[in-house]
Amino acid sequence: MEETNPLVQIMSEIVEERPDLALPVTLKSVFPALPNNVDLNIPEGYTFSPEHGIKIATAHAIEPVYGFVIIPTALIKANENDQQPMVLLYFWDDKRQQWERHKTLVDYQTLTSTRDITKINKIMQIVVDEQQRAPLARYFADFWKANDRLQVLPIIVQKQRCGWYGTNEFYPFLIKNEESNVKANNKTLIYAIGEAVKSLPKGNMAAAKQVIEELQSNPVFAVCLAGCLASVVVPLIPGKLDENIGIDVAGKTSSGKTTIEKLSVDLVYGLGDLLKLSWAKLKEAGIWNMARVINNLPFILDDTHRMKEQHAGIPHDLINGQEGPKSIQTEDGWEGRDPNSSQYEGTAFFNGEIPTSRMAPKDSAGIYGRIFIIEHPPFPKETTGSEVESLKKRGLDNAGHFAKPWIEHLVKLGADKIYQQVEQLNNIFDCTEKDALYGRLATKAQVLIFCLREFNQLFGTKIDEDKMIELLKQSMDVQTENVNVADKQMALIVEKVFEQLAGRPFNEKDCILLNYDNGYPLSSRPDVCYCKESHLIIKGTTLEEILKEGNYVNAKAVCAQLQTAGYLEKSSATKLKYPPVEGLNSDQARIQGFKFLYKDFEKFIPKDEDDGTKND
């Protein structure tokens, strides 16, 4: 049988006669205000005092354990499946007369280990000296027993991503539990974002509105601000919008492209620097890791002209919300990516001297239907550099005033009403004689208009909606025209080549080689090579002849157009290999020309000619 502490026994006998002298048994009997509003048991034999901390009754005396009260207040899980949660500690600061959160999470094994307990000294909020190790470790062990192995503590799952959690919580601006930002690792982006938001908003809203007033007639600013607002709307309207919004501000150097995007993000969210990456020196994994964390917040990818070859597919994939089919790293190791889950939902911003479509030629046709390419000066010509710097500084000094009320407004509206209001804007864009690319952009434009209109009404601003619509329509017309013209050019090329290929047999390498002017069989080296369901190679001079038949006299301009639309990887002729046959060695099996992929031109092959060929 476990022996009762003699002092506790004596106190118990006294209490039977004088109940008013009873030792406090719960925190609430000592401290009226409690972290997380959870009353906990004081372990038997211990006393808590705001002024003197923790003491324990021994056989000989009441001895100090620690100079102020420290208590576990919550169990913090890294994710829902975490079986080894960390412990969140609070301590009473008697000078300030308030509970202070200890910024380092620890596991309970550390707290109950005489050797390891000094790990809580890490950031000097709590300092445990040599004499305090054993009694404090014993205290935490007794506390664990007295409080049902801490099962009574609230369990808080750390936020690993920004954005919506359910329908009325948006991290980090609208959260149910402030403790969800407590991190075991304070060097992560999610931790940095959570900490940054604690100092927001900056300055005052009136000054922020003054910046907006000065920019209210600027259509590029209107598009960027609406894009920032739309980032948190995108996940709310699946079915209406099943992919992300992209905005690419392109133009000459030092024209303010980055400034206009970052200024918009700072005014709304106050997080411009944390949500921005430059393509220079970036690895693909780093971009996707950041995208997964910021999730429903806007994402700025700076300096498109500095993209490298390995980056080419990222803009297209980012608008789709999913990385390519590869494994991703999680806290528990590596796992396959769920093809049905989005890794990013929001608005992706791009900017640079060259539009994204030209840096990703293989995806450019898809990009034209997904990203608004804004080739318009971010600021009027008369705006001086010092004026731009002033706007930038004032935006930063008065940042983050609009995020929380905007998100609260969306919660109040509800997803159904947002969907209905976006749907009501269908009549702004006449898509009856437009193609699918235009229609896809029109849906995204409706979301931008909804956001700007609601923002103006909510905050009493007067950002020019009509100018924004005009700029969006201009962008949409140019983009779809680029693709449509290239489609016509590609259709002409395929039609003319497949007229010559019709009925020709494939050789042993599954290719057809021919002289465009002299037909088949070959009278000289081939100037056309069609590899079955793979690709088509056309000699440069032959392509010029074909284009002239369609009254396209500037072959160089056409090739640039075809590259922009994604049909050509390079706009100038290069030496291209084709499978050699008898009479030709590998060095001779080359054509100075252009390569078109079958998957890109298949839709233009005349149906009555099917493959345009036959097998021997």
In short:
The chain is an alpha/beta fold. It contains 19 helices and 23 strands. Helix 6 crosses helix 15.
Structure description:
The protein is of the alpha/beta class and 616 residues long. It has four domains: 6-156, no CATH class; 158-196, no CATH class; 207-330 and 357-463, no CATH class; 484-614, no CATH class. The chain is 36% helix and 16% strand. It is built from 19 helices and 23 strands. Strands 11-12-15-10-16 form a five-stranded parallel beta sheet, with helices on both faces. The protein has a five-stranded antiparallel beta sheet with strand order 18-19-20-22-21. Strands 6-5-4-7 form a four-stranded mixed beta sheet, with no helix packed on it. A hairpin with a 4-residue loop joins strand 2 (53-57) and strand 3. The longest helix has 37 residues, at 465-501. Residues 18-22 and 325-340 have low confidence and may be disordered.
Number of domains: 4
Distance from first to last alpha carbon:
97 Å
| Proportion in β-strands | 15-25%
- Helix percent band: 25-40%
Average per-residue pLDDT, rounded, comes to 86
Q: Helices and strands: which structural class?
A: alpha/beta
- What is the β-strand count? 23
The poorly predicted ranges are: 18-22, 325-340
